[in-house]
Amino acid sequence: MEFNGVKETSGATPATDVLIVGAGPTGLVLAIDLARRGVPALLVEKADRLFPGSRGKGIQPRTLEVLDDLGLLDAVRQAGRDYPPMLNWEGPDGSVRGREWDMVERSEPTEQEPYANALLIGQSRFQEVLYGHLRELGGDVVFGAEVTGLAQDAEGVTAAFADGRTVRARHVVAADGGRSGLRRALGIAMDGESVSPRPMLVADLRITADAIVDDRNWHVWNGASEGGLVLCPLPDEPGLFQLIAQFSDENAVPDTSAAGVRKLVTARTPVTEAQVTEVVWASDFRPRAALADRYREGRAFLAGDAAHIHSPAGGQGLNTSVQDAYNLGWKLAQVLRHGAPAGLLDTYEQERRPIAAGVLGISTRLHRKAFIGENSQRRAEVRQLGLGYRGGPLSTGRAGALEAGDRAPDGPRPGGRIFDLLRGPHFTLLAFATPAPAIASELVRVHELGAYEAYGRGLFLVRPDGYVGWAGEDATGLHDYLARLGAAQRP
Question: Rounded to an integer, what distance in angstroms lies between the CA atom of residue 189 and that of residue 38?
């Protein structure tokens, strides 16, 4: 028997290098990154299809840079749109147009930050784009494959599936969401707090064109005593909206049936039941912030919502999850394909867990402000361009304007942009107004450039995930650093 070409195994020999459990954005991005690096991986999903709803819908600027590197930016942009301005509806029946305002502060692109604003795209559509790209790379998803057990030893992991099959892999990554069964099986606790005791409901609706709502605004009703409701137009198709509703009563039990969602809409907005032609998907939840005690147990790793659970406020959860995968992918490849020390994989938790802790604080603060009616504008902190790994285990040195661990800025160069040089699975040594040393490694590309203020003078080794790993005024220590990562010339 086989899983998408991977033979069922019960012995000690691994059938694949990486088993990824969960085909949400995290698992799909990780599978894409491993595929382009030539690392065999098996991506499995318990459900019989991709997640059908728009639970997450905002792609932040830093994630757009990730998608640029993965070759996905144009496709995602084509499927998405800019965030529309918020529109407050007022009056006794909620049919009077009030003020318009931007939830997220709009910024102008710069040479260093070419993607200045978040992109709106429903999670289901985003996943379709990712899945299509994975298949172009020769990968796929095995649907209807539920992992029910996991055993580890010194050489790998053996996963048992509900249908009786087993698969052997060198490593496994739990990307199976906030209720991760794999996290529980690994015995990893998740500590957290309630962001709000009041329940919420999220759903995707199709609404007729004659309704009061349109696709030019994100529509807000705050007047109902039972709680507020918003309808955000999704770019997936005309007439498709994401609904988010809050309930003032802590004991309320949201009705997620199609009839219940229609009644909720008509009770709090001028949209009629007849104008809601379909409830595509609906779910209720109580906002919570939680962080896994650790991201690794032996040869198993947690990524995405399996490692951290966010309030939807600020659009941070999906983006932090994608960047987990982006951080882990190149490290797995260096260890599995290029002989890097196994300890490199320890840096995944060391770098990503502090990031998640900080981002959770942002989401929680924004949610609580919104609940008390303080509709404060989201500013630069949600764009995730300022996040980095200064002082981290893989950050060494500084030169010019940058310190190791900083995000590598974009900028002009003869014939193109700096990001053009970084795009791909390699390391990049940028020499600004400084002679570049000779590096005979197929994993490192070297470019000499003129002075540029965003970098200053010096040498900057950019990691495959777009952060400066090493910086110096000359090449002292560079070879040793590359050797640590399995990127130095081999004898």
Answer: 33
- Domain 84-116+197-286 is of which CATH architecture? 2-Layer Sandwich (3.30)
Average pLDDT estimate for 126-130: 98
Q: What is the CATH number of domain 398-484?
A: 3.40.30.120
CATH of 2-82+118-194+289-383, one of 3.40.250.10, 1.10.150.120, 3.50.50.60, 1.25.40.10: 3.50.50.60
Using CA atoms, how far apart are residues 326 and 338, in angstroms rounded to an integer?
A: 18
The pLDDT, as a whole number, for residue 382 is 73
**Whole-angstrom Cα distance, residue 287 to residue 283?**
12
Over residues 38-55, the mean pLDDT reads 96
- Where does the pLDDT of residue 383 fall: very low under 50, low under 70, confident under 90, or very high at 90 and above? confident
The predicted-structure confidence for 170-224, as pLDDT tens digits, reads as follows 999 999 998 899 999 999 998 875 557 889 999 999 999 999 999 999 999 997 7
- pLDDT tens digit sequence for 214-266: 999 999 999 778 899 999 999 989 999 999 999 999 999 999 999 999 999 99
DSSP calls for 132-192: HHHHHTT--EEES--EEEEEE-SS-EEEEETTS-EEEEEEEEE-S-TT-HHHHHTT--EEE
CA–CA gap between residue 326 and residue 31 (Å, rounded): 10
The residue to which tokens 């007849």 are assigned? 274
Domain boundaries, the chain: 2-82+118-194+289-383, 84-116+197-286, 398-484
Is 294 within 8 Å of 349 (Cβ atoms)?
Answer: yes
* CA dist., res. 160 & res. 164, Å (int): 7
CA-CA distances (angstroms) from residue 236 to 53, 233, 239, 240, 319? 11, 9, 9, 7, 19
221 membership: H or E segment, kind and range: strand 218-221
What is the pLDDT confidence band of residue 491, given thresholds at 50, 70 and 90? very low
